[in-house]
Amino acid sequence: MGWRYRVGQFLGRLGARPTDEDLRLASEVLPPKALALFRTMAPGDQRHSLRVLRRLRGEGHCGPILEQAALLHDVGKAGAGLTLAHRSLTVILERVAPAFLQRLAGPAPRGWRRPFHAHLHHAEIGAARVAEAGCDPLVVALVRYHDRGAWPEGLAAWQADLDALRRADGRE
Ligand SMILES: [Fe+2]
Ligand SMILES: [Fe+2]
After folding, report:
1. H, E, C per residue of the chain
2. How far, in Å, from the CA of 146 to the mean position of ligand 1?
3. pTM, rounded to two decimals
4. Which site among 27, 87, 89, 124 is 20 to 30 Å from 115 CA-CA?
């Protein structure tokens, strides 16, 4: 996927607040603790996650595990001070200078490095939050592996769901 597309995707998320209908949908999919977690995300990330969910449903993928993962997959980005500038810069650096981005992110989420660290490691951070909110271990796994990495062999039956989530995420 081209970086221009990805930057445009982020710009499109600017200022997008979830509607009442969005929130109703989220509350139908998520149990209360998970819903509270969902609401900690930036409004644009909430809208993005809802678009991922709607795309999956439109493609005929459904079921509580995948739907919850769709809404929570980016929750690791919440509270990290990720501005639009960070997001755009990160997307460009991922493409042109990934090693430099790793250096910017540093080994730990401290000070000005925190947004870069959160962006790079949001899948792992999100998985820990989703587990803490009491979600099913499969939801946790889908969040953990949604953006990279090899899917555990023991969960092969869920590979198609992971692939569908990754595809929908890349398009929304
Ligand atoms: Fe993500
Ligand atoms: Fe995403």
Report:
1. CCHHHHHHHHHHHCCCCCCHHHHHHHHHHCCHHHHHHHCCCCHHHHHHHHHHHHHHHHCCCCCHHHHHHHHHCCHHHCCCCCCHHHHHHHHHHHHHCHHHHHHHHCCCCCHHHHHHHHHHHHHHHHHHHHHHCCCCHHHHHHHHCCCCCCCCHHHHHHHHHHHHHHHHHHHC
2. 7
3. 0.89
4. 27
